[in-house]
UniProtKB/TrEMBL annotation:
Keyword presence, Cell cycle: no
SUPFAM superfamilies in the record: SOCS box-like
Record CDD domains: SOCS_ASB_like
Protein's organism: Microcaecilia unicolor
Listed pathway(s): Protein modification; protein ubiquitination
UniProt domain SOCS box: residue ranges: 249-295
Pfam families (alphabetical): SOCS_box (PF07525)
InterPro entries named in the record: ASB17, SOCS_box, SOCS_box-like_dom_sf
Family matches, as PROSITE patterns: SOCS (PS50225)
Entry protein name: Ankyrin repeat and SOCS box protein 17
Length: 295
């Protein structure tokens, strides 16, 4: 932390930026270090408390400002802050943001806004601003260096409304092994969701909805592999799961209409125009809805 004291943190970002102000407070008033305490453990609680206080009560407009501040901070701080500290600080911030958006709030409007703000970075998984590919700890933990991706967490908790938004933005299509998400929806143990905007939802109905959404994105779902998992003693959360997978995703040839949907979505995804570019296509509204996974 002593090396950081030589930095003029407010010079690297615009004034009134949430994150640069937070860095400035850490640098000017470093926490007392006890024997054996080092690194992010010194300032992590302060970062979490500050961001948690904001995120706990923030509305969509406030969240828009927070994400804009984070993007500005990352773009301008990369070459001005000590590399190791910058990495640790941004990891803590990302962990806290994703934790509150996905594990605590579980609000689809916040998720969609997050994707809208970071859409330009989705194609590059290594980009620190591609927040949807970063990991977070679903239950708050001091270490932000391990966890799961938002897509995997949403599959584990069967949040169908949020999964739909992630799929609309092509997140499942960019997964290396999309079938693993299907396995998670079917076989991951049920657990209580802890969210601010908690609603009583039938977890089985939500799981069915999640499975149906996946069939709108994938060209095939290996039913044999799912049955193999059952022979190993794994029990799907949906007893009649096969009824929710069309035969054209397994045994029969896939519908030409669905293949066209996948091809068009892939082109839009490559150009970072998914799903916003769908409305500009010269096709009937009903087909636009089909491309956007509404049906």
């Amino acid at each position: 932390m002593s090396d950081l004291c030589r930095l003029n943190c407010k010079a690297c970002c615009q004034k009134n930026n949430i994150f640069i102000d937070l860095v400035d407070r850490i640098v000017r008033r470093p926490s007392l270090q006890f024997p054996g305490q080092w690194g992010y453990q010194c300032y992590e609680p302060r970062v979490y408390r500050t961001l948690a206080k904001i995120l706990r009560h923030v509305d969509l407009d406030g969240f828009d400002i927070l994400i804009s501040d984070y993007i500005t901070f990352v773009k301008r701080s990369e070459y001005r802050l000590e590399k190791h500290f910058n990495h640790e600080f941004t990891e803590i911030c990302v962990n806290t943001i994703l934790y509150w958006v996905f594990a605590r709030k579980g609000n689809s409007k916040f998720v969609e806004l997050l994707l809208q703000k970071t859409r330009d970075y989705i194609q590059d998984r290594s980009c620190s601003l591609a927040l949807i590919w970063r990991t977070f700890t679903p239950v708050y933990c001091p270490s932000p260096l391990s966890g799961i991706t938002p897509l995997l967490y949403v599959a584990q908790t069967r949040q169908s409304s949020i999964l739909k938004i992630l799929l609309q933005y092509g997140i499942l299509e960019m997964e290396k092994k999309p079938i693993n998400i299907v396995f998670t929806i079917l076989f991951y143990p049920s657990r209580v969701r802890i969210m601010d905007d908690h609603e009583l939802i039938d977890i089985h109905e939500d799981a069915k909805r999640c499975l149906q959404l996946c069939t709108r994105v994938l060209s095939s779902i290996p039913v044999t592999e799912i049955k193999t998992q059952q022979t190993f003693g794994r029990h799907p959360i949906i007893s009649d799961w096969l009824d929710y997978i069309p035969s054209t995703r397994d045994k029969e040839p896939c519908e030409l209409l669905h293949l066209c949907r996948l091809a068009i979505r892939n082109q839009l995804l490559t150009k970072t125009q998914l799903p916003s570019g769908i409305v500009f296509l010269p096709i009937p509204i009903i087909l636009q809805h089909y491309l956007n996974l509404e049906t």
